[in-house]
């Protein structure tokens, strides 16, 4: 234990003195602040209705006027153009007239997994026809700031916070791996690694000591991220369990970086390449349709991202965390075995 603490203290001093150490502490905070600016406030979350107003599927002007007080109206020329609008960023609903069924069709944009949503347009139209048929009867829908009781279990977390927060945690794993890898490279450049070979410090103690500072950093940033992104009502224990689970993947990233690079410039280049591989898996998991998600199942980082997003949207149970964590650790072990010779050779 004494040797592990000594390695940790030496590693901490090196990171505090080195400009890259300061850079990797400051940049995550800057990213969090930027994400925070993109999280919409209650006042900016009004829906936009993309309404087809031309051709056979046009919504009557009377209905457009009825809907306009409750949402921003965007007039669209066709169903195809409406669907294109729904692929963009923001809270958008589509609306058109179906001649076959002689009914209005409300179309919702894609929402995060498990995030039930309801259509503003459908409620307003329903209320309009109800009052037409029932004269001066009381409205059946009351519009107010809040969530209807029947939808009280839906996620109210902004996708910017849930998805952005999940990507941020993967980014912190990469940063932590960078810290470990750069520490190893620095020891190689200074000849410290050769001195360690004849010291009482074992290789296991050396790598454990190198992992303490990155672990502390990511644990601290976990709380900071939850505070900044407004996610303090999630299960914090689940967040920290995932941080610990991800430590194995972080260590593999750092060891591979330290093994492949012989100096700081090489380490930055190799780290960028490894980061692109990691982010490719995350982008695949984010952008690919569900039936193609298997294409990125090979990446441990994908499973970490998937679990984090589940925690942030409150859509994951402990049993799911257990088996997905097992997959993450197993995949990390497989990659460790496959890269074992390369890592040993690079660190020798």
Share of residues in helices: 55-70%
What's the shape? elongated
Q: Using DSSP, what is the number of strands?
A: 4
Based on helices, strands and strand pairing, what is the structural class? alpha/beta
Radius of gyration: 26 Å
Question: What distance lies between the first and last C-alpha atoms, to the nearest angstrom?
Answer: 24 Å
Order of helices and strands: HHEHEHEEHHHHHHHHH
Strands of the widest sheet, in order across it, are 2-1-3-4
Q: Please, how many domains? A: 2
Low-confidence stretches: 41-45, 111-116, 140-148
What is the mean predicted local confidence, pLDDT?
78
Number of helices: 13
Query: Main beta sheet, described?
Result: 4 strands, mixed
Residue fraction in strands: 5-15%
Question: What characteristics describe this protein?
Answer:
alpha/beta; 13 helices; 348 residues; four-stranded mixed beta sheet; single chain; 2 domains
Task: Report what the structure shows.
By secondary structure, the chain is of the alpha/beta class. It has two domains: 228 residues, no CATH class; 110 residues, no CATH class. Strands 2-1-3-4 form a four-stranded mixed β-sheet, with helices on both faces. α1 crosses α8. The two termini are 24 Å apart.
Brief summary of the model shown:
This protein is an alpha/beta fold. Helices cover 64% and strands 7% of the residues. It has a 4-stranded mixed β-sheet with strand order 2-1-3-4, sandwiched between helices.
Helix and strand topology:
Blueprint: H1 2-17, H2 19-38, E1 48-52, H3 61-67, E2 72-76, H4 79-86, E3 92-98, E4 103-108, H5 120-134, H6 159-190, H7 192-197, H8 203-228, H9 236-260, H10 264-287, H11 300-312, H12 318-338, H13 340-347
Parallel strand pairs: 1-2, 1-3
Antiparallel strand pairs: 3-4
């Amino acid at each position: 234990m004494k040797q592990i603490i000594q390695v940790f203290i030496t590693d901490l001093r090196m990171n505090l003195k080195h400009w890259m150490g300061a850079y990797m502490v400051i940049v995550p905070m800057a990213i969090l602040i930027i994400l925070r600016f993109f999280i919409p406030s209650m006042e900016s979350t009004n829906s936009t209705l993309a309404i087809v107003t031309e051709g056979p599927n046009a919504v009557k002007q009377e209905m457009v006027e009825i809907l306009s007080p409750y949402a921003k109206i965007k007039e669209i020329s066709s169903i195809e153009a409406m669907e294109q609008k729904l692929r963009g960023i923001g809270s958008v609903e589509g609306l058109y007239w179906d001649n076959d069924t002689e009914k209005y069709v409300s179309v919702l944009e894609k929402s995060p997994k498990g995030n039930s949503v309801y259509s503003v347009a459908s409620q307003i139209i329903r209320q309009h026809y109800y009052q037409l048929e029932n004269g001066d009867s009381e409205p059946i829908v009351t519009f107010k700031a809040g969530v209807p009781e029947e939808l009280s279990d839906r996620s109210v977390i902004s996708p910017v916070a849930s998805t952005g927060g999940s990507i941020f945690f993967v980014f912190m794993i990469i940063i932590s791996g960078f810290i470990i890898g750069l520490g190893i490279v620095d020891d190689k450049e200074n000849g410290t690694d050769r001195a360690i070979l004849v010291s009482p410090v074992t290789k296991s103690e050396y790598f454990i000591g190198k992992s303490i500072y990155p672990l502390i950093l990511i644990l601290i940033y976990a709380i900071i991220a939850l505070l900044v992104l407004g996610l303090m009502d999630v299960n914090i224990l689940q967040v920290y369990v995932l941080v610990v689970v991800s430590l194995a993947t972080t260590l593999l990233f750092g060891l591979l970086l330290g093994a492949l690079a012989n100096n700081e410039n090489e380490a930055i280049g190799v780290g960028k390449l490894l980061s692109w591989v990691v982010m490719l898996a995350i982008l695949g998991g984010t952008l690919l349709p569900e039936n193609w998600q298997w294409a990125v199942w090979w990446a441990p980082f994908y499973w970490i991202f998937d679990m984090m997003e589940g925690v942030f949207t409150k859509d994951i149970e402990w049993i799911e965390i257990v088996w997905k964590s097992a997959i993450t650790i197993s995949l990390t072990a497989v990659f460790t075995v496959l890269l074992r010779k390369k890592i040993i050779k690079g660190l020798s």
